[in-house]
Amino acid sequence: xxxxxxxxxxxxxxxxxxxxxxxxxxxxxxxxxxxxxxxxxxxxxxxxxxxxxxxxxxxxxxxxxxxxxxxxxxxxxxxxxxxxxxxxxxxxxxxxxxxxxxxxxxxxxxxxxxxxxxxxxxxxxxxxxxxxxxxxxxxxxxxxxxxxxxxxxxxxxxxxxxxxxxxxxxxxxxxxxxxxxxxxxxxxxxxxxxxxxxxxxxxxxxxxxxxxxxxxxxxxxxxxxxxxxxxxxxxxxxxxxxxxxxxxxxxxxxxxxxxxxxxxxxxxxxxxxxxxxxxxxxxxxxxxxxxxxxxxxxxxxxxxxxxxxxxxxxxxxxxxxxxxxxxxxxxxxxxxxxxxxxxxxxxxxxxxxxxxxxxxxxxxxxxxxxxxxxxxxxxxxxxxxxxxxxxxxxxxxxxxxxxxxxxxxxxxxxxxxxxxxxxxxxxxxxxxxxxxxxxxxxxxxxxxxxxxxxxxxxxxxxxxxxxxxxxxxxxxxxxxxxxxxxxxxxxxxxxxxxxxxxxxxxxxxxxxxxxxxxxxxxxxxxxxxxxxxxxxxxxxxxxxxxxxxxxxxxxxxxxxxxxxxxxxxxxxxxxxxxxxxxxxxxxxxxxxxxxxxxxxxxxxxxxxxxxxxxxxxxxxxxxxxxxxxxxxxxxxxxxxxxxxxxxxxxxxxxxxxxxxxxxxxxxxxxxxxxxxxxx
Length: 679
Known about the structure:
- It is a single chain.
- The chain has four domains: 7-112 and 262-332, 3-Layer(aba) Sandwich (Rossmann fold), CATH 3.40.50; 117-237, Methionyl-trna Synthetase, domain 2; 374-518, Isoleucyl-tRNA Synthetase, Domain 1 (Orthogonal Bundle); 576-665, CATH 2.40.50.140.
- The chain is flat, with a radius of gyration of 32 Å.
- Helix content is 41%, strand content 17%.
- The chain is an alpha+beta fold.
- Helix 13 (417-427) runs parallel beside helix 17 (473-493).
- The strands form eight sheets. It has a five-stranded antiparallel β-sheet. A four-stranded parallel β-sheet has the order 3-2-1-13. Strands 5-4-9-10 form a four-stranded antiparallel β-sheet, with no helix packed on it.
């Protein structure tokens, strides 16, 4: 029998305060968490939504060093950017704290010390990678090399992003430090480790037997880790930035960021509720739910529960509804490459359109597999669904009510079979939505809410009250009453998903609030209730706005290609005699035309110093014929003639291929006589 809880503690992964949040973060963690919390609040359940910034770790020290500021400067800046973005976007945290607070430092130190005093750690001396130039031990993410499994370049010390295999830094082939680019050396250091192997048996039962209801991607990743066998994991790090290890002789060592960050959920709760925080974390009647991305599954399902169990007084998570990753225009989102749509920039570019992004990201939510965000899909979903379906139905129902009944809810006359069918269809929405939201199926839940609007649009199109207005106003009143009840239901059904739009809709209906238990009712608005004038719930997004975003991404992609350009490896050696066989010369272009029925080919007439020769080159994509007339080009003069699209080509013009695939003709830097040889 499923346990009934008195309250729910909901956490969302702490964003790392070395940069802003982007669409991948929103789709993976914060929108699903906010939908769930808003749903529970609508049901009048006791729920606490905990968020905050993760402000320790190597990436922050590196950014600070690069910018010539302190780590505290970095985290202060980005904590404020992130917090403001969440507030403007409507992510309804009860508290949004930070791991640099005194409360957190004290709690994390005490948590470590409790486990230390209970002998829950093991002390080990080992060799770890050290960057001699930077004079620092390297975190796993700051070592890259060749993956030993798929042999992709650029694999991290903890994971290969191409094949997804978990790694140790020592697994990498030809490792290098991402800080200085130098080859790291092994250096001895002593740290404390949480012996996960000691917790393996109870974790297997707790996850694999007791939580088979977890999402397949979460359950599967946990099973994979458990099947491979768990190993001790370091809880301290050689760093200056972080929470000092509260043990004598641990100078220069701090708590590993993965150890102190999840304790931030607890310390942020204590910051909000200093006298009653424990009931949200230690009472067996409290349900704990973590919303995270897939890169955090192991920490929230295996490591953090092991920490809590070792401490002994905390509850364990009941569910961890992790999402997979969201890609952007077909490519993996990358903060280091600026391949992202940053939330604070979106809010500037699309003011007042928070709910549009919430809708699109939920519709494309990567709930069980990676998904893709594209600007064209964003535009299409806004224009074809939010505007043309939801907004259109609401607008028609309200405008017609003002036109025929002075904005007052008309009475129902006799119901037709079709009326009854429509009323029945929205009576069922509450149970369907609850089933989906209780099981964290937010994408399907939003579809169910939108289905109400589709029912309403079809109902108005089928009944055509504007035609009946000439002959049967009682029938028009019935149709509009049912339509308005459906509009009121939409305000409730969409409340967890699109809170700003639901608030705007309630304002149009002149209703301050609805309760969740009213969802599905056909008498939410009383007869003669005065509604306000209709205003547009959603606006069409024009091509210009989308083109601007696509141009920005195209520019970023080009910049990344240029920054990451590497020349092709040099080909195998040839003997000098082979090279001297090639007759390389300079010629002057006399004529240049397009080859008929060949989009890529240009036909050149070249003065080679002896005669005029014809050469065909596949460069029409990069040059107009008239641009090349009179130019001097380098060519191979002694290639045998070859027919291309019916034209005999007597040689090959030399072009350099740029990193973006474009071609540039090679020319002497000052004019020479046609036929001059290249030696």
